[in-house]
Amino acid sequence: MDFGFITGSKKEHEVFSGVLSLLETVTGTVDSFEKSVSSWAQGDTKSANEMVERVFEGETKADEIHRELSLRIAEGAFFGGVREDILDLLEKIDNIADSAKDAARFISSDSRLSTEAQDMLGSSDMKQFMAALKGSVAALTDLVRALNQGKREALGKVHSVEGFEEEADTHKDAFIKNLLSSYGSMNPVTVIQLRDFAFVADDVADNAEDASDVILVLIAKGYG
Amino acid sequence: MDELLIGLAALLSFLFGWNNSSLIIGNLRGSGSTPFTFAVLVSVVGLVAGTMLEGPKMVGSLVGSIAPSTTSSVMLAALLASIALTLGLTLAKLPVSFSMIMVGAFLGATYSQALPLNLGNSERVVAFWFIAPVATALITAVLYSSVSGFVSRFGILTVDSLNRAGGLVSGLAVSYTLGANNIGLFYGSSLAGQPINIGVMLVLVVVAAVGVATFGRYALGGVIGDKMLALSSQGVFAAFVSSSVVVWVGTQFALPVSISQCLLGGMLGAAYSRAISAVNGRLVTETLSLWVVAPLVAAGLSFVLVRFL
């Protein structure tokens, strides 16, 4: 429940709306990242590069929103006891976009990733891995919304992000296992690039989980 | 002699404001979003209201209650001993129980002059010192559970606003009850047995407010609260309000009582009701020891002092 007439302070509402806006931007960034991988797997490098550009733009916009919100909080929004935790939450959410950008670099035109990687990037393990990454960000958004409904609602959703993060780990491990088993048929540089790509992309879900841990602290501190 | 006693009572009020500034404005300032001037303003409103509305109830808590009558030299010795001890403890950044020290000092000087003492009332006062923190702990445990249950239904934005409102309410409650119980006591130590002089009461309140405003930024902030244990905003609110209730009850019966004692009880009550284990046992022990030692030292000091006055 959120009683707008009780809350009174416009500043806190604006910051909270800003957090949701940041999450929306980060969700868009991760979506673009997933599409870039999917396009690349289908051999459509033009679309892939366009999606990579969107990832970079989304990450820049996320940085701007993060900066603006941090300033507002530093100026005195929210009760002092939770201010640092909200700043930490913003940092972790922004890190999701950063991870998507870092991973997107592997398939950008500058990375010179070989076309033999197409099959691996189009594999079912990779598709499920990408779905789990998107799921972790969607679950985080749900969790932040639930935070403004009540303690019980928030606590009910706090572990859903972790669930997606574990799923991402499982699919990442399966992908790498397949990758290494095809070592003899692929250029070793491509194998290393794909392995590093998987590890960096996995940071999307890891950062989403870190953000959900901060929300747990917010619940503990804010609700006594 | 009256002017001297009033002057000393004013000095004690100043020290009281200084030493208790963290209690009076600490919770509001702890929110991090309340300007210092606003916090001081809230404390002044509370102190003035408490002193003017219920301070007169405490005027007879020493002379008239603990002892049927007194002399100027006894009051002078009691005030001097109280000032010396409270100044020393304030400079040492330790929480001071003004009411306990004053009662100890008054008892010591009265006994030294072989003046009659009302032992029954004295015992009542001392007994309340033990009952008060226990009662506060129990009230806090109940209030804390209720408040936590209440806020859990709301989103974080509403909880944030409730925490701020709670800081304001608890700040007002603490300053009101301290104004009534302590400043009323200081007034009684200077002009006991005479008609209430509103002007003098106002002077004492203003001087106390100056003490809060002057040293509030740097004073004992945190000894009671965050150095002893970590509590949420709701826990601190429950402890502060419960302490204020118990001190208020003491005021109704003209019993001088220490809010820092009550707060300790309240915070421990809140901590143990939620199975919080991060309690600084050493600091708790030191604080408790001080509460036993300080009134005894005050009694000894005034016992000796009065013989030279």
Overview of this structure, please?
The complex is a heterodimer of chains A (about 220) and B (about 300). Chain A has helices spanning about 5, 10-40, 45-75, 80-105, 120, 125-145, 150-155, 160-180, 190-220. Chain A is mainly α and about 220 residues long. Chain A has a single domain, classed as Up-down Bundle (Methane Monooxygenase Hydroxylase, Chain G, domain 1). The longest helix of chain A has about 35 residues, at about 190-220. Helices cover about 75% and strands about 0% of the residues of chain B. Chain B has helices at about 1-20, 20-30, 35-55, 70-90, 100-110, 120-150, 155-190, 200-215, 235-250, 260-275, 280-305. The longest helix of chain B is centred in the middle third of the chain and has 36 residues, at about 155-190. The two termini of chain B are about 10 Å apart. Classes of the chains: A mainly alpha (about 220), B mainly alpha (about 300). The interface of A and B includes residues 7, 16, 82 and 220 of A.
What are its keywords?
heterodimer, A: 224 residues, mainly alpha, Methane Monooxygenase Hydroxylase, Chain G, domain 1, 9 helices, 0% strand, elongated, disordered N terminus, B: 309 residues, 11 helices
Provide a short characterization of the protein structure:
Chain A has 224 residues and is mainly alpha-helical.
CA-CA gap between termini of chain B: 12 Å
Which word captures the global form of chain A? Answer: elongated
Termini separation of chain A: 17 Å
Helix content bin of chain A: over 70%
Q: How are the elements arranged and paired?
A:
The complex is a heterodimer of chains A (224) and B (309).
Chain A: H1 4-7, H2 10-41, H3 45-74, H4 80-104, H5 118-121, H6 124-147, H7 151-157, H8 160-181, H9 188-222
Chain B: H1 2-19, H2 21-30, H3 36-54, H4 72-91, H5 98-112, H6 119-151, H7 156-191, H8 198-215, H9 233-252, H10 259-273, H11 281-305
